[in-house]
Amino acid sequence: MLAEIAGLSDELWNAGGSMTVGQFRAQVLDKYPAMRDKKFKIAVNQRILDDFVSIETPAEIALLPPFAGG
Amino acid sequence: MLAEIAGLSDELWNAGGSMTVGQFRAQVLDKYPAMRDKKFKIAVNQRILDDFVSIETPAEIALLPPFAGG
Amino acid sequence: MEKVHKPKKVFVQGPISPDFVAKSIASHQSKTGIGAHAIFLGQIRADQKEGGVVTGIDYTAYEEMAEQAFHDIREAAFARFELTCMHIYHSLGLVPTGEISLFVFVSSPHRRAAFEASEYIVEEIKAKVPIFGKELTGDSGHVWKENT
Amino acid sequence: MEKVHKPKKVFVQGPISPDFVAKSIASHQSKTGIGAHAIFLGQIRADQKEGGVVTGIDYTAYEEMAEQAFHDIREAAFARFELTCMHIYHSLGLVPTGEISLFVFVSSPHRRAAFEASEYIVEEIKAKVPIFGKELTGDSGHVWKENT
User: Fold this and answer.
1) Which of D10, D47, D62, D118 is most worth mutating to test chain A (most A CB atoms within 10 A of its CB)?
2) What pTM value is reported for the model?
3) Could you tell me which of D100, D133, D126, D75 has the C-alpha nearest to residue D12?
4) DSSP result, B2-55
5) Closest CA to D9 of D90, D75, D83
6) Considering CB atoms only, which of D25, D31, D36 is closest to C21?
7) What is the pLDDT along chain C (148 residues), one digit of tens a residue?
C-alpha cells in the first residue's frame, strides 16, 4: 500500500553522510508527503530500530505498513 | 472410591428430624471412620450446599470424591 | 443475551478423536462472523504413580448432576463473554494414555473473548463437574485422579 | 532451556484445512508427557467495509524478516513457558472468508502453560510479524487490514 503512494516498490536512497532512523523518516515524508497520512514502521536490515539509531550503510531499509497477521 | 470404604454404593439414611449438611457429614464420619482420611463433597439433590443448610427430606444425597474431569 | 442455548450432549463414550475435532472446526466455516476459535484438549498423561505408569483413565460421572453443571457453565460463559459458539465434550469410560478426554471449543468474532472463555470453561469444568477418574496402572492397580 | 529448536516452516500457501489441524493433533498422541493442548485458529470474517463485504484476505509478508520474527517468538515462548511442543502456521496468498489463516498449537504437561503460551504467541504474532493483508471486497475493491 505504501508502494501505491511512491509509485514504485524499490528505491535507492543516497544518504548524505551518516543518518539516523528518525532523519530517514523525515526525508521520506519530505519526498512523499502523502505518506504523512499513513502509519508505517521502518525496518533496517530486518529489524525495527528506534529513531535515534544510526543507519550503517549499505543497509536494507523497508517501510512496513501496519501488520495484519492472524 | 468412597463406595470402596462403605462397601456399598447406595444406602438409606434415616434422619432423626431435620438435619443440616454439616450434621449429616458428622454422622457419615461417625459411621465410617475411614472416611476421615478422604476428601469428599456432599451434594443434596445434585447441588453442593453449605454446611449450615438444612436438608429437606426426602432428598437424594451424594458423597462426591474429588473431581477429576479434564 | 436473549438467545436460548439448547442443551447439548457433552458426554461421549471413550476417547475423542482428532477427526471429530476437525469435523467440528469445518462445521464452523459457514459462520462468517467468527474471527477466532480457541480449542482446549485434555490428553491422558503417562504419569508415574506408586503402582506403575498410568496406562489410561476410566471416567465415570454423577451424570445427571454433571449435565446440569455443564449447562450452568455454558450459560455463564455465554453471559460473560461475547461468544458465537461453544461446544464441550468429555469422555466417559476408558481413555488410554495419549488420547483425548476433554474438548472445549469456543468461537468469537475476536480473539480476546475466545481466549478468556476457553480458560474460564476449563477451570469451571475441573472445579464443578462431578466427573471421577480412575487412573489405571499396570495390570490391576489404580489410583483415583484428583484435580488441582 | 538447552534444547535447540529447529527452525520450522511457518508459511503455507492458501487456507489451513481442518484436516491439517487433525493430523497435527494426531501426531502428538505418542507424546505421553502432554496433558494439555491449546489451539488458536484465526478465521476470516465477512466484515462490512465501505467497499462491500469482505470476501477474503490476500496475505503477503516481508518473508525473511517474518521468518526471523517467528523464530524469535518461538524461542521466547519456549524460554518463558513449560512447553512440550509448539507449532505455528500462517497463510500466504488468498484465504477466503470462513477459512483459517492462522494456526497456533501449543502442548504442555499442564493446562496453565498451554493457555498462557497460546495467548502470548498470538499477541506477539499480531504485533511483531511483518505480514500484510489486503481485505478483498466485492469485484475489485480492497482495504488494507490493520491489527489492533
Assistant:
1) D62
2) 0.91
3) D100
4) HHHHHS-S------SS-EEHHHHHHHHHHH-GGGGGS--EEEETTEE--TTSEE
5) D90
6) D25
7) 445 566 678 999 999 999 999 999 999 999 999 999 999 999 999 999 888 999 999 999 999 999 999 999 999 999 999 999 999 999 999 999 999 999 999 999 999 999 999 999 999 999 999 999 999 997 677 788 888 7
Chains in touch with A (≥3 Cβ pairs < 8 A): D
Q: What is the pLDDT of residue D51?
A: 84
| CB pair distance less than 8 Å for A68 and D125 | no
The 10s digit of each residue's pLDDT in B7-65 is 556 778 876 678 899 999 999 999 999 888 888 899 999 999 889 999 988 888 999 99
- Spatial contact of B69 and C102, defined as CB atoms under 8 Å apart: yes
Q: Cβ(D87)–Cβ(D23) under 8 Å?
A: no
Question: Taking the CA of residue D134 as centre, how many other CA atoms within 13 Å lie in the half-sphere pointing to its CB?
Answer: 14
Phi, psi of D19 (to 5 degrees): -65, -35
Give just the sign of the alpha carbon dihedral B6, B12, B13, B16.
Answer: negative
Contact D65 A46 (CB under 8 A): yes
Contacting C residues, span 99-128, partner chain B, CB-CB under 8 Å: 101-102, 122, 125-128
Q: Whole-angstrom Cα distance, residue B47 to residue B59?
A: 11
Residue C9 and residue C20: Cα distance in Å, rounded? 14
Q: What is the pLDDT of residue D5?
A: 60
- pLDDT, tens digit, 9 for 90 and up, residues A20-47: 999 999 999 999 998 888 888 999 999 9
| Residue from C17, C43, C57 whose CB has the most chain D CBs within 10 Å, to mutate | C43
Residue C99 is placed in which grid cell? 488420547
Measured between CB atoms, does D129 come within 8 Å of chain A?
Answer: yes
Structural domains in chain A?
Answer: 2-64 (3.10.20.30)
C148 interfaces chain D, CB cutoff of 8 Å: no
User: Count of B–C CB contacts within 8 Å?
Assistant: 59
CATH code of the domain made up of D11-26+33-137: 3.90.1170.40
Confidence class of residue A58 from pLDDT cuts 50, 70 and 90? confident
Does residue D60 sit at the C interface (CB-CB below 8 Å)? Answer: no
B with A: 3 or more CB pairs under 8 Å? no
Alpha carbons D83 and D115: distance in angstroms, whole number: 11
